[in-house]
Amino acid sequence: MTTIEFRDKLLKLHKSLIAYAYSLTGNKDQSKDLVQETILKALANREKFIYSSNLKAWVFTIMKNTFINDCRRCKRQNIYSERNYESQLCNNTRTVSFSDPASVYCASELVDSIEQLQEPYRKTLQLRMRGYKYEEIAEKLNLNIGTVKSRIYLSRKQLAKMMCQ
User: Fold this and answer.
1) Which helix (H) or strand (E) holds 46?
2) Are 71 and 58 in contact (CB under 8 A)?
3) Higher pLDDT, 147 or 1
4) pLDDT tens string 43-71
5) Which fold has domain 3-78?
């Protein structure tokens, strides 16, 4: 199969690719990005396609694997970002200075959002932000360490939800 034939057959799958990408992402813009990335990968790896096999299945497999790898990458980045954010928050709570109005506004918005959390979640998160270790919080609040970790995780998740609204 020539490059032109391959490209033409690939372009005929465009509508199917968009529909499948949307079913994976649930977001129109992300689905367009996924289709574009899939087509680029398919074109770059054209020589790996076996002519007698099903092109649609091959391209859909590329898309599914790309989507899964992107999800894993995002998950790793979010875990790193959470850890990095938490360490910055814990290490810099006493030395934070706000030099511009936007930072002051964001900080006040964060404080307001924390105040809106339910009591046990707010208290656990505030102790963590003050630099207490999980074990110290568990001891201070007479809780299991798993409960402390869970409350902190759920607090951060709820804060992120509030801040993005």
Assistant:
1) none
2) no
3) 147
4) 888 888 887 778 899 999 999 998 888 88
5) Rna Polymerase Sigma Factor; Chain: A (1.10.1740)
